[in-house]
């Protein structure tokens, strides 16, 4: 290997030869003094190409995360290698490093059928589906993809039958939408159920997703509800936006969460007294869509789509990855999960002053601190307050009756909340990707499909990194408060008014 200075008449030269049996080089000849001018050597960075820099920083993008930004790459090349590069070269180098570390986006679509087929082979019970469209030239292009791991399919059998659906936009080279179906385990933690990649949030894509979801979620009538959309969340948001009266959002939230119909109408009458227009709006929406007392199915404690909204931040980094790029169960020391045990302790503290009278067998009359009486049946596991019936967790009245009868309160909890069922949900594991090219695909199978990426067009301008907030929504700061923009007056420096409406004397 010979290295020469780029100067025409410079004597700087290095001659090295590779040693046998290793990757080291031995310098044979070295002329270390330059005889050229500084102007001849000022452009020595021309060999720092985007491909070379991309290979140098590839390891920084092969793990989880976005990797360094172009500005960070420029600083890295300047401080560590004394080579200044432009922002555009740093951007191109970053793209090359991402492609080298995470895989080529176009090739990922070709590998997708083999990857899905290998998933089904290694984990029987995994549900996959791919929908393609012919572009007219004989090429099958990607349209939809559905995936539910076998561990999720088996674990859902031990879940409470409430599924929350949501979608989020993909931000890679080929745009689309990631649809997710999530459940909530007995410890109130997120349980991912199924994923789908579609071309957008449209009726056709949603219909296809739900048709495939039926292969994972049984379509029974026992826990069916007329709506699995985030009705309660949208309802409160619309009320805050459209109706400006104070305390409306609080009253609507209380009316939605009470268990008895009589308690619902107590709060609904207060809503009418505050704003009759808001009451008419809620009536038109339909009580069964946003209230727990009128629900046709078992909502348990799930009243909003926060389960799915919490899953989206966990997937925010993966949304930019190519299409081919488990949390263990929490240890439970008692008979029930930690969250349910926490609720039992809380209800016990409230019920210590209740008056309990035995009626017959397993029936008890419980009088609370407000002198309101409720009937509890410990054998049938119900209470006239209906909270025990709907949540399957002993309410304050059931806790008082159980303590009076010397029964364990946690023995009254529904089977879905027990430790054994919690462990059974996570009896299967989701293994790392591994190699999915070890076996040649059989003809006329999913693995033999020659898949091409979809035809998509990016909208103009730089893509947004976060969702545009709807009217009435505000960002939360790290401290927990609302991140509203504080408007200050340019005349006096005060808040809550502007220069035109300022009344402060100068």
Automatic annotation (TrEMBL):
Please report the stretch or stretches of sequence annotated as the SWIM-type domain. Answer: 374-406
Q: Where is this region: Disordered?
A: 434-468
Which Pfam families does this one have?
MULE (PF10551), SWIM (PF04434)
Q: Cross-referenced InterPro entries, in alphabetical order? A: MULE_transposase_dom, Znf_PMZ, Znf_SWIM
Q: Which organism is it from?
A: Brassica campestris
**Phylogenetic lineage:** Eukaryota, Viridiplantae, Streptophyta, Embryophyta, Tracheophyta
**Keyword flag Zinc-finger:** yes
Signal peptide residues are none
In which residue ranges is the amino acid composition biased (Basic residues)? Answer: 455-468
State what protein this is by name: SWIM-type domain-containing protein
GO MF, one term, reads: zinc ion binding
